[in-house]
Every structure is written in C-alpha cells, then in structure tokens.
C-alpha cells in the first residue's frame, strides 16, 4: 500500500479562519491540507492510494514516509471519505466533514463555545479556539493511536490501535489510564469495547502508599513519557535518556499489533531515513497475552513468534490458511473439516498426517490432560480421537486440544512437542455412499440410484484430479463406470470393476507389452478405450487354485477396500474359469528398484520421502485397513513410483489371495531371497514382523542405493548389505555407506536415525523389531531412536564381539 499524501498548501501562521475549507482532490492539489507554521505538520485529506479514498488526518509533512499521528474517527470507524469530500471550519459545529453528496460524515464539536479560528500547531496539535484564544477542542485531547511530545492523557483517556498498518478502523488493542491511576494495555473484544485483562500495566495505583496512583500520562516536550503520580512522583515508561526533541521528531504509538513503542526521526536529514525504535512494551507479546488477556495477537489457530524488533509475526500451521488473505494477524482457518461425523463419513481410517512442531504451544483450548504419559502415546491418543486437533507433550504430560486453538506461540523454553493433525487431502467433498449390490432385495432400487448418481459422478470426476491418495481409486471407478453401466452388477461389494477376458486381451493388445514378472504372474501394459484411453497394468495370475472362487472374491474385496496414497490402486479384475487377472492403475515411473539402482542416484531428500512413504503404506496394511494384510514380499521391485515419485506398494494381498494360510506355520518359503525374515526358515508363526524385516532391508537399500546382496562386489566384506552396514555403524563410518554423498552427510542426524531404524527392523528376533507404527514415528523423528542391539549372532561384527568378550 502506498499512502500518497496530497500536496500541501503553505499557511502563514498556522491559523485558519472560520469558513475556510479543504477539498479531497487528486494528487498535487493545494487545497487539501493546512500546514503548521514550521511546515512540520499538516492537517487535511490524506490520500489512501489508488482507491480514491481520503482520510481526514494529521501527518508529518516533511517526512517522505508520511506518518499519520491523528485521524478523525467515530463509532470505531476512521473517517475515510471519497474524493470530492470537504472539511469546513464552522463557528458552531467546529470541523465538519461532508461527502460530495452533502452528507455529514463527521463533526468535531466545539464543547459549548463558538469557534473563532483553528490552529495547526507546530507540536502537531490541531486546536479550535474561541475569541479569547481559549481551546474549545483539540486533537491532543482526542488521540487515536499516537501521542506526541507535549500531549497528556488524563484518567479514562485511551489510545486505540488501528486494524492494520493501512486500515485505520479501530483495532483490537487499547491503552487506558484507568480511573485508579493504573496505565494498562489490553485487548478488546470488537465490536464491543469490553477489555480483557491487561497484558501490560504500570501498576501505578495507590497501593500501600497513598498518593502514588497515576494522575496522568505525560509525554513532556523533551520526549520523556511517564505516569505522573498524584504525589508528584514519576513512573517512567522507558529507562535511559530520551533523544533530543529539538533535533528529532518523537512519537509514541500503540501499533496495530499491540506493541506500544516510542520512535524518533531526525528533523533534518538527507536520503532515506526512517523511524528508529527507542523502546517498546511489552517485552514478548506472544507470551504476554494469555487466556484472560484475550485471543492473542495472531488470532485463532495461528502461531506467534517474536521478531528481533520485538514485533510479533504470525504464521499458520500446515493445513491451515489465513482467514483474511491479506492480514496475517486475523488468524487461520483449517483447510479441512475436522469432526467425528466427517471422519466417520470418510470411511477410511487414514485421514490425517501428524505434523510435529517443537516448542509450539496453544496454552489454552485443552479439553483433557493425561499424566503420566509418553510422547508416543500422546500422539496416538490424539490421532485416534476425532475431537482432538492437536496434542502437546511436555514433562510426561499430554494435553489434548480442540479447535479453534488460541494464543499459539513459539517458546524455546517449553521443551515441548506439538502433534498437530492435518487432513491428508484438502477436499471435504464426500462421494455418495456406495450401494450394496450383494443385497438382492435392494438391487433394483440401487441401480436406479446409480443412474441418478451418474450426474453426481460426472461432476465429481471433475474433482478427481484434486483427490490424491484414497480418492484416486474411487475416481478411477467413476470414470470407468460412466461407460460401463451394464457391468455394474459384477462389481464386488463396492468399487472394483469386472472385466471379461476378451476385454483385457484387447486392452493389452493380446498380452504383448510386458511390464514385469513376479512370483505371482506376469504384468502387461494395457489401455482401456475410454475417451483418449486410460492406461492400466494387467497382472495375469499364475498358480491359480481352481476351486477358490469364493476365497478369490473375498480376498479381492479386501484389496479393493484399501485406499492409501502409498498403495497401488486395484481397479478391477477378471475371473473367468482358468483366467484370473487383476487390473491396476498404471504408474509411469517404474519400480523403486530401477530408480534406486540406476546410474545416477536419486537425491537424498527424495529417498527420505520414498522410505517414509513405503513405511506408511505398510503401516496402513498392517494396522489401518479393515482386514490386516501381511504383504510377505516387500522388495524394491514391488514398490512403484507414480508421477510425483510417491512410493506405492504393489502386490499386497496376493500372498493370501494365492491360498497361503498365514495363521499357521510354514515350511514353504515365500518372499524373495535377501529380503525374507528368518522366521520363514524356522518353525515360527508368520506375523506382520516379516514385513518389518523386509522393510529394514529395503530401507538400507534406499539409504545406500545398492542391492541387499551384491555377489559381484570385489570386496567380500561388502557383499551382504546388512552385515556391512552394521560393521560401518559400529565403526561410526556411515559416510562410507552413502558413498560420501554430500547431501546425506549434511543431514547426518537423519542418516544415523534411518540406519538405526533399519537395524532395529532386521533384528533376528521378531519381538525385538518395532511395529510399523513405531517405525514411521522413528523415521519422522517423532520418537527417539535408541541404539539397536546386534541384529543377529551370525553377523560378522557380532561374532567378533563375542570372541572379544570371551577372551
Ligand atoms: C502551540 O502550542 C504551544 C504549547 O501549547 C503554545 O505555546 C503555542 O503558542 C502554540 N502555537 C500556536 C501558533 O498556537
Ligand atoms: C478495515 O477493517 C474493517 C474491519 O475489519 C473492515 O470492515 C473495513 O472494510 C476495512 N477497511 C478497509 C479500507 O479495508
Ligand atoms: C521531562 O521529563 C524528564 C524526565 O522526568 C525531565 O528530566 C525533564 O526535565 C522534563 N522536561 C521538561 C521540559 O519538563
Ligand atoms: C492443501 O492446501 C494447501 C493450502 O491451500 C496447499 O498448500 C497444499 O498443496 C494442498 N494440498 C493438497 C494435497 O492439495
């Protein structure tokens, strides 16, 4: 915003006769202001920029960044007037501001007297005088947000802040010399003037010593600001010398952000000089404004931090945005709807991410306090609680808080963690509930519903591009179904499409373009002819068990219900006698294996993202989807990358689909050499911990960008990745495992943590391995990673260790 002052009209002695007037006109017109004799101050119409509005005010006429020291206001509004408005000096009404249409916008009044003339004084005071030069009205007695030397504030006198630097309407902060003599600054609850408890006070009340209460706030002409007590004593607002009032302009302003500050500016200057801060109160407004003092400088849901000049800045947490886009002090609004009903309607449990903020607190808005507690449980407790917006953990105590959050701030002394829930997708759009087609009685009605839903779906599909993760599969489904109304009856449960073998044969051009080959079958690229064609990956399952019709559908249903941004989305299937095929979305960037083991390494940050993505996908499979899924074959070949290089796990659910009874013990070994957990070789039950083991190996591969087994490695010590990394870990030589990669070494804490997490995951004893939830928390730095024990007695380093101890 540029505040462009209109050019000023030189007065001879600052005296203005009754009948004189000013007009709010364009730049450069001399009839828009009256100057004080020295030319230091101007009274008149101040252009508020290109919007054609003017403010009736007083400003420093000689300073380029013309600072307004007084402005006309009424009813909490500044007297902003359109171009062409006039101000008249009248005998009986004092100053009268009138719009071009002739409406009176503001009047000064005259007390009871009759005005003889006005004076724009060199002190910055505009005075209406009667015939005897007695003051009838003056701007010094009707201050806005600024005091000038020579000005005093009587008991019950106030200063009010503006809304913002450029909005002169009444703001939220008020300085008041109370009737008891105490000078206080508080927030007020607009639009009422109800003041909250002060966040600054001079405590100049009578107290124990009679006569020590403040009589008035004095800004003496030398530039000293103090509360003058009844007994003549002074309470100085600032310590130290004031600058020379002869050589400097001096002012004290209650800023729009609640800081009361004194500034000076040399009267004679060349070049670009601005105001210098002399002192300000309070010391730390972010901490000072507490519950009883009001909502805080930054408004709801915001976080206040102090700049070097002790002025506050406000910032929204992730997932929140400014309530008023141009005004960071008005607070933040969540970009999502959070509530129990919303969570329920969304159907998936994986709605939120947790952001961790250190030393950030919203000291009120608690609804529950848990003690004694751990950080991990605190995070989890909030995550699972649909009422909880954020949890603060500090000194074994967990405070759960609800929206709106107030008085948010950063305080380095807190030593706390804030776990704030952020909804994963911004959209609160709800898809219509899926009809249950298994239910024969409702079949007819359902298909009617479906037809009606088509239009909804069409509209919804426009939003599909916004719907990441969970919604992606649904989006797919909608696009397809628009064209495939006839096969709706074949949809299993909710959202999988049924294809005929012939359709898939055509789609894949007779199964020609092979994308990959795995334990479960061969994958072909295909295109389904809708619009410009949608690319899919079609997996032809081998080793299909003939009579498994029912189980096949049951398992497909489980897979079909999984929706997570780190999982590949199953779109449909074909189940025609011998032919069992699965149709997946096609991901453009291939497998993690090809990405990781290519000639150029992916960047460290990208690898971190991918590792966390894989961990979250697994966590979802293990704990968050309706039926637990053990993957059994986690390896980089089974992890795909989408357009944004987000890691997406594929082939999940297939182990079970292909009739492996996971609840019993096995002799037949699944999985892939180099990644399989030791329990596969032993007579031990197979649990989610087998995936944790494989993840540990994959994590090491991601860190090191090399394969877990490298038989061709010249150096025998390096051939087995897990063994070698553990050697390096013990020797504190982690730079070797990342091949002295600069970016990774610059992020040593993460590197160390990731390696330790991986070592925890590859513990031979499954019970020592963390679960995936813990893994995710450790990777994200939410919980501390302890130093892991030796993964297996067969590790080289561990053999050495036991040898040494035996000696
Ligand atoms: C300006 O104010 C001062 C202090 O109140 C006073 O002494 C002086 O006469 C005033 N000047 C004019 C031109 O009224
Ligand atoms: C100033 O803020 C008030 C209160 O928020 C608002 O009503 C008014 O429109 C704003 N004025 C300008 C010029 O933006
Ligand atoms: C203003 O106040 C200061 C501090 O109390 C004092 O030293 C100084 O003499 C005062 N100046 C005038 C002109 O009264
Ligand atoms: C969510 O909204 C925020 C702020 O509007 C934006 O920065 C972010 O990219 C959005 N995220 C998604 C997934 O759309």
User: What value does the Rg take, in angstroms?
Assistant: 36 Å
Shape call: elongated
What name goes with the CATH superfamily of the domain at 589-807?
Transferase(Phosphotransferase) domain 1
Biggest pleated-sheet summary: 6 strands, antiparallel
**How far is it from the N-terminal to the C-terminal residue, by CA?**
79 Å
The number of helices is 18
Bound molecules: 2-acetamido-2-deoxy-beta-D-glucopyranose
Number of strands: 47
Based on the model shown, name its key terms.
28% strand; alpha+beta; binds 2-acetamido-2-deoxy-beta-D-glucopyranose; 18 helices; disordered N terminus; 47 strands; 807 residues; Transferase(Phosphotransferase), domain 1; disordered C terminus; Agglutinin, subunit A; Hepatocyte Growth Factor; 22% helix; six-stranded mixed beta sheet
């Amino acid at each position: 915003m540029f505040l462009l002052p209109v050019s000023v009209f030189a007065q001879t002695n600052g005296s203005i006769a009754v009948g004189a007037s000013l007009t709010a006109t364009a730049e450069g017109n001399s009839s828009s202001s009256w100057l004080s004799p020295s030319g230091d101050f101007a009274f008149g119409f101040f252009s508020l920029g290109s919007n054609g509005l003017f403010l009736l005010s007083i400003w420093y006429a000689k300073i380029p960044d013309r600072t307004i020291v007084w402005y006309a206001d009424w009813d909490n509004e500044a007297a902003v007037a359109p171009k062409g408005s006039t101000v008249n000096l009248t005998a009986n009404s004092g100053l009268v501001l009138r719009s071009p249409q002739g409406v009176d916008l503001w009047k000064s009044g005259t007390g009871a007297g009759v005005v003889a003339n006005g004076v724009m004084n060199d002190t910055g005071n505009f005075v209406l005088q009667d015939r005897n030069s007695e003051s009838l009205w003056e701007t010094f007695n009707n201050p806005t947000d600024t005091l000038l030397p020579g000005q005093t504030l009587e008991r019950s006198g106030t200063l009010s802040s503006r809304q913002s630097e450029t909005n002169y309407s009444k703001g939220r902060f008020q300085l008041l010399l109370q009737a008891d003599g105490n000078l206080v600054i508080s927030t007020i609850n607009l639009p009422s003037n109800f003041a909250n408890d002060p966040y600054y006070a001079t405590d100049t009340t009578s107290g124990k010593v009679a006569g020590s209460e403040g009589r008035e706030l004095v800004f003496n002409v030398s530039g000293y600001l103090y509360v003058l007590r009844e007994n003549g004593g002074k309470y100085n607002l600032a310590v130290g010398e004031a600058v020379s009032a002869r050589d400097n302009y001096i002012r004290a302003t209650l800023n729009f952000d609640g800081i009361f500050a004194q500034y000076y500016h040399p009267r004679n200057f060349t070049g670009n000089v601005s105001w210098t801060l002399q002192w300000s109160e309070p010391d730390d407004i972010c901490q000072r404004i507490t519950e009883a003092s009001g909502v805080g400088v930054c408004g709801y849901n915001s976080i206040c931090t102090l700049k070097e000049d002790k002025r506050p800045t406000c910032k929204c947490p992730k997932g929140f945005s400014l309530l008023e886009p141009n005004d960071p002090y008005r607070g933040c609004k969540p970009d999502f709807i959070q509530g129990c009903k919303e969570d329920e309607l969304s159907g998936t449990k994986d709605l939120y991410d947790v952001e961790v903020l250190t030393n950030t607190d919203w000291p009120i808005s608690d609804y529950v306090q848990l003690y004694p507690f751990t950080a991990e449980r605190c995070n989890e407790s909030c995550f699972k609680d649909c009422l909880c917006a954020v949890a603060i953990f500090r000194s074994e105590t967990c405070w759960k808080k609800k929206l709106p959050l107030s008085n948010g701030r950063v305080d380095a002394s807190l030593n706390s963690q804030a776990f704030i829930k952020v909804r994963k997708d911004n959209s609160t759009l709800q898809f219509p509930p899926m009809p249950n087609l298994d239910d024969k009685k409702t079949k007819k009605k359902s298909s009617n519903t479906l037809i009606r839903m088509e239009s909804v779906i069409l509209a919804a599909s426009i939003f599909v591009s916004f719907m990441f993760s969970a919604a992606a599969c649904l989006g797919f489904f909608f696009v397809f179904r628009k064209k495939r109304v006839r096969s709706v009856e074949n949809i299993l449960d909710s959202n999988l499409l049924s294809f005929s073998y012939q359709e898939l044969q055509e789609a894949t051009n007779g199964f020609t373009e092979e994308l990959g080959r795995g334990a479960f079958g061969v994958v072909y690229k295909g295109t389904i002819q809708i619009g410009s064609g949608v690319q899919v990956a079609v997996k032809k399952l081998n080793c299909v068990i003939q009579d498994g019709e029912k189980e096949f559908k049951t398992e497909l249903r489980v897979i079909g219900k999984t929706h997570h941004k780190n999982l590949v989305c199953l779109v449909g299937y074909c189940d025609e006698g011998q032919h069992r095929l699965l149709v997946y979305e096609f991901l453009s960037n291939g497998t993690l294996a090809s990405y990781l083991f290519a000639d150029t390494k992916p960047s460290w940050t990208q690898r971190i993202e991918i590792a966390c993505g894989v961990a979250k996908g697994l966590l979802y499979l293990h704990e968050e989807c309706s039926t637990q899924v053990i993957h059994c074959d986690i390896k980089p070949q089974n992890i795909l990358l989408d357009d944004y290089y987000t890691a997406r796990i594929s082939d999940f659910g297939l182990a079970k689909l292909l009739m492996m009874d996971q609840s019993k013990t096995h002799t037949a070994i699944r999985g892939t050499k180099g990644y399989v957990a030791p329990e596969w070789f032993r007579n031990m039950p197979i649990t989610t911990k087998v995936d944790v083991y494989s993840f540990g190996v994959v994590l090491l591969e991601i860190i090191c960008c090399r394969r877990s087994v490298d038989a061709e490695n010249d150096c025998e010590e390096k051939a087995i990745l897990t063994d070698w990394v553990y050697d390096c870990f013990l020797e504190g030589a982690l730079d070797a495992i990342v091949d002295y990669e600069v970016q990774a070494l610059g992020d040593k804490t993460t590197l160390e943590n990731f390696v330790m997490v991986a070592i925890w995951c590859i513990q031979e004893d499954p019970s020592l391995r963390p679960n995936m939830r813990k893994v995710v928390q450790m990777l994200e730095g939410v919980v501390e990673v302890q130093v892991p024990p030796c993964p297996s007695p067969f590790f080289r380093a561990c053999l050495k260790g036991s040898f040494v101890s035996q000696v």
